[in-house]
Design brief:
alpha+beta; Heat Shock Protein 90; 11 helices; 5-stranded mixed β-sheet
């Protein structure tokens, strides 16, 4: 239920702002357009009934009059709204979302106001033509009425744009604040193995230079991938899995047979979008707090499952468990707190992170929205 509420809110936020990134499923955008046309049709029906009730005292009680007015106004409103949406889809596809996001404020204002005005200018006469017979006696189809209707439509679209633009500015400010917070939270993340890996390399240089070289190469590749992820706001589950795999293989060079791991993620789920560095801290915690302090080491298991519209990620280990004494070498709990803050910033109550004991070891479960791709 929370996942559906999040998707609805995200889709509505996109519909009323000038954000070019349409969240799936795309049909929700058409649902908001339909609801908007219903609302506009209802408003103009009330206006029309009020303007004609003086000549016909019993008009308010005539169901057929309500239906005729609403049918005509809804068809015209939906024609305009659908045309505006199609124009936006075509313009965004033609110009590309990346270029649009790079527009100046003035260019964005022109782009996102010109299209609704054009939609009204084209959609109003088209809508009138569609209801010309049904609207006989209700809509006057002549040059004067079309010009007046176009002017009224432009005024309406301008008011709507001003309202939506204010909402867009608010959404943009919230997005930038969230991005700044994410940068801060990501900058706080300190991989537990950095200094230990470098110390191991120094120790092995004289006694096992080949192994030291392999460890240093793996460490360099991992660090390069990690730094690249810090500069991205979006990633995929596949890239996170690849990063975790590189990390665990690097740890195997250091821990040798004290570390075993397995990864169970389907090829389909690898393409699911996932914010960067959500999975990695859970894997690091499993090693640092669960397996490294355990004399015989142990195993780590990473698993991903889709449950309806939800993605469930689990990182399990058979180490010392969550009740074991915490190690002093790192800030205990910082990584988990960061993940929870990022989930709250991105998904609200639609996502969660839980840590629970298992026998033996610990299981960390990450749940977040994972909408299915439209067919």
């Amino acid at each position: 239920m929370k996942t559906r509420q999040f998707l609805l809110r995200q889709s509505l936020d996109q519909w009323v702002t000038d954000d070019t990134a349409t969240p799936p499923p795309a049909w929700l955008q058409w649902l908001w357009t339909l609801l908007f046309a219903l609302m506009v049709g209802a408003v103009f029906t009330l206006v029309g009934m009020a303007s004609n009730s003086g000549d016909r005292p019993g008009l308010w009680l005539d169901p057929s009059a309500w239906w005729r007015w609403f049918r005509v106004n809804f068809v015209i409103a939906f024609t305009i709204a659908a045309l505006i949406q199609l124009l936006f889809m075509a313009a965004i596809s033609l110009v590309s979302p990346g270029r649009i996001r790079g527009f100046s404020n003035r260019a964005r204002a022109v782009f996102f106001s010109a299209i609704p005005i054009l939609g009204v200018l084209l959609g109003w006469p088209l809508g009138v033509a569609l209801v010309s017979e049904a609207g006989a006696g209700w809509i006057r189809i002549d040059a004067g009425s079309l010009v007046g209707s176009a002017v009224l439509g432009i005024l309406i679209s301008t008011v709507i744009y001003l309202i939506f633009n204010a909402r867009a500015q608010q959404a943009l400010a919230e997005k930038r604040a969230a991005e700044a917070q994410l940068r801060l939270l990501q900058a706080q993340m300190e991989p537990h193995f950095l200094f230990n890996t470098l110390a191991n390399v120094l120790t092995l240089i004289d006694v096992e230079p080949a192994r030291a070289k392999a460890m240093l190469e793996s460490f360099t590749d991992y660090l390069r991938a990690t730094l690249a992820k810090l500069r991205k706001d979006e990633g995929s589950l596949g890239s996170e899995i690849d990063l975790a795999d590189a990390y665990l293989r690097l740890l195997q060079l250091r821990m040798e047979d004290r570390l075993r791991f397995s990864i169970d993620v389907s090829a389909e789920l690898r393409h699911v979008l996932l914010p960067p560095l959500m999975l990695q801290p859970l894997v690091e915690n499993a090693i640092h707090h669960g397996l490294e302090p355990k004399l015989e080491g142990g195993a780590v298991t990473i698993q991903a499952r889709r449950l309806g519209d939800e993605l469930q990620l689990t990182v399990s280990d058979d180490g010392l468990g969550p009740d074991a004494p915490k190690r002093r070498s790192t800030g205990n709990g910082i990584a988990l707190a960061n993940i929870r803050e990022r989930l709250q910033s991105l998904y609200g109550d639609a996502a969660s992170l839980t840590i629970e004991a298992q026998n033996p070891g610990t299981r960390a479960t990450l749940r977040l929205p994972c909408p299915r791709s439209p067919a």
